[in-house]
Amino acid sequence: MPVTFKLAQHIEDINPDDWNQLVAGRQPFVQHAFLLALDKTGCARPDTGWAPQYLLMFRDDVLAGAMPLYLKYHSRGEYVFDQAWAHAFERNGLPYYPKLLAAIPFTPVTGPRLLAASHEDKVLLARQAIDLCRQNKLSSLHILFPSEAEHAALAEAGFLFRYSVQFHWTNQNYADINAFLHSLNQQKRKKLKQDKKKVAQAGVGFRWLEGSQITEEILAFFYRCYAQTYLEHGQTPYLNLAFFQALYACNSECMVIVLAEQDGQPIAAALNIRDEQTLYGRYWGSLRFVSGLHFETCYMQGIEFCIARNLSVFEGGAQGEHKLSRGMLPTRTCSAHWIADDRYARAIDDYLGHETPAVDAYLDELAAHSPFRQHPLDLK
């Protein structure tokens, strides 16, 4: 059947059911509702440096494939750092921006980026995105955190691969948090118990709020904490309150707030996103410093929630070696890159040829410092 391609600048112009059937019920970040919330609330729009260019593939007027593409005018909010590449272009009088990006804005979570059923259609989408770069004389195309199932299609389309490390916790059918702590070596177990005790002695307790349990007031309190943490670092939050309100209005079931209270008063909150198997640690903030509060709210409570709800994985977000001591093991993540200028493509390929073994060596080093009583399986 003949294939045609179109671009859409607004996700609201795409039928939600048509888009979501390509996603096939997978993680919330790729769902129409999440992208619509980013779009409609102005978080990922041209004036913030994110110009949506959703690539759509049709067969006989039926949506058969799609890519969440953005024309990017900077590299902020990506969690894959290519600023050195941009500087190299600029030093030689070549523009790096705008570039084309396939990603979920502000979301360093591995998931589908080539939304199509077959390998062949994934390759078609990737090659069409490359053609968009060529036609518009863009410097490059970057696909961030694609799923492992898409790697073969990206390789066939001619992409270079870059690797990084995140820290994920895996549920080994723990009966409760004590069973998990018992699986750790004595030193790590003792330290985590001491940290939990210290937070409790400070009068801090926790509540888990899911879906309809999250009120407008709780959501507003969470955002106050989230924004405060950005401001303390001299930064403006990527996301606004309207985004979280819009996401709650259309998909509250995916939201889990860990609310920290001291002497009955809320002082901090972490907002996590969940699906049927995974809890994604995403956003956090605090109005008051309490020693150990960040780690307990963001990580230990997330792990305890996963055990209680029988979830398989807790993804703790980008970077952070400190997560290893809390039972979150290093996991290799990937990004894929196509560079228009052959000279720079060769230079970056050479660079990646040195960077990839260094990442593998880092994974090996981390594996040697497993917090568990027995070393985990090969991490690569």
How would you explain this protein's 3D organization?
The chain is α+β, with helices and mostly antiparallel strands. The chain folds into 2 domains: 3-165 and 331-367, 3-Layer(aba) Sandwich (Aminopeptidase); 172-311, Gcn5-related N-acetyltransferase (GNAT) (Aminopeptidase). Helices cover 38% and strands 26% of the residues. It contains 11 helices and 15 strands. The protein has helices at 16-23, 32-40, 83-91, 119-135, 151-157, 177-182, 186-201, 216-232, 241-251, 293-309, 342-367, and strands spanning 3-8, 50-52, 54-59, 62-67, 69-72, 99-102, 115-116, 140-144, 160-170, 204-210, 255-262, 265-274, 278-286, 313-318, 329-339. An 11-stranded mixed beta sheet has the order 2-5-6-8-15-9-14-13-12-11-10. Strands 1-3-4-7 form a 4-stranded antiparallel beta sheet, sandwiched between helices. It is globular and about 65 Å long.
Give a short synopsis of this structure.
It contains eleven helices and 15 strands. The chain has 380 residues and is α+β, with helices and mostly antiparallel strands.
How large, in whole angstroms, is the Cα Rg?
A: 21 Å
Low-confidence stretches: 376-380
- Which class do the helix and strand fractions yield? alpha+beta
Major β-sheet profile: 11 strands, mixed
Beta percentage is 25-35%
The percent range for helix content is: 25-40%
Principal-axis shape equals globular
- How far apart, in Å, are the first and last alpha carbons? 39 Å
Supply the CATH class of the largest domain: Alpha Beta
Order of helices and strands: EHHEEEEHEEHEHEHHEHHEEEHEEH
- Assigned CATH superfamily of the largest domain: Gcn5-related N-acetyltransferase (GNAT)
The chain-level mean pLDDT equals 94
The CATH topology name of the largest domain reads Aminopeptidase
CATH architecture of the largest domain: 3-Layer(aba) Sandwich
Biggest sheet: strand arrangement:
2-5-6-8-15-9-14-13-12-11-10
Number of strands: 15
| Tally of structural domains | 2
Tally of individual helices: 11
